[in-house]
Each structure stands twice: as C-alpha cells, then as structure tokens.
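pinning this so it doesn't scroll away 📌
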Amino acid sequence: MPKNREILIKPIISEKSLVIQSNGVYSFIIDKLANKKEVKEAVEKMFKVKVESVRTVKIYAKRKRTRIGFVHTKVMKKALVQLVKGYDIESLKVN
C-alpha cells in the first residue's frame, strides 16, 4: 500500500448506504488511483474486520449551473465493501 496517499478518504452516509449496511455492505469515497486490493487491506487494517469482496465505481464530473456560469464537480471513486458475515463496523452505525 503506498504511503504517500490516503486510500480511504471518507465514508458515505446517505439513506441508500444506511439501507445496505444491514446486509454488511459499507460504502466509502476512496482515492482515484486505489485498486480493490489496496481498499481491502486498508479497511481490514483500519477497522479490524474481514472483507469478503470490494466493488468500485468511478463517479464522473457533472456540469452544474451557478450564478457565475457553469462549473464541473470533482471526479471521485466509490468503493462498496462487503464484510464477512458476523463482522460489522460499529463506528459507522447510525441508530
């Protein structure tokens, strides 16, 4: 795992991500250059859980209108991390 960049940037806390958390799937915004193996190692090391699978999705820039003109949002990468049954991340649970 490269030491010069952060793999996990932040967790995604939305209505949809909270619904899939009941199935053991957690979603994170990750570094654009990170691969699935690096994401798996980072989640296992940070939260001390076992990861079953990782799915990644690239979120492309969108054109937004502002009063100044048009701007583009940032390009991001999202990871959906499936944990082994019996494991969960308590710090990301919202009651």
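📌 and the second one:
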Amino acid sequence: MPKYHIHLYPIVRVLVRDVEAESQVEAIKKAERMVDQYQLFRQVRFDPPVADVEFAEDTDGFLVDEDGDTKYEKSTWYENDYTPSPPDRK
C-alpha cells in the first residue's frame, strides 16, 4: 500500500486586542506587524498582544506528496472539497 505525506492548511483565527489605529485597514496592518505568526504556532501559551488562537473549523486545502517521490513530480494540491486544484496552484 503506498504511503503519502499530507500537508494540511487549516484556517485559524488569531485575535489581537486593543489595536489603536486611524482606520480599520491600518489596524489590520498593525496587527500583522505585532504578531510573529511563525513563532505563534510554535508555542503552547500565548503572550500579549495575542488574546486567543483557535482552529477556524475550515481547511483551505491540502498538498499530497507521495513517499519516495523525491522530485515531487506526483505532488498534488487539493481544494478543501478534496478535488484536485488547477495546475497553476503548484
């Protein structure tokens, strides 16, 4: 039976509280700068300004690599409904 390596791309919600800004778009950009999202998911507890992190109960898509396919020629992207993505997504 073949083996596969599956990359899940879950959608998560990160709540950043009390962002002061002149507009909503400025607040979004400020929040992005305030949170190191790479580090965020490597820790167990959260420090301010992050108030909460949770799985958003949806997955954006999947990447499937076949075991032994070292050149990733058989790797395939799938949409969240398990249908293969258009080739230009690779």
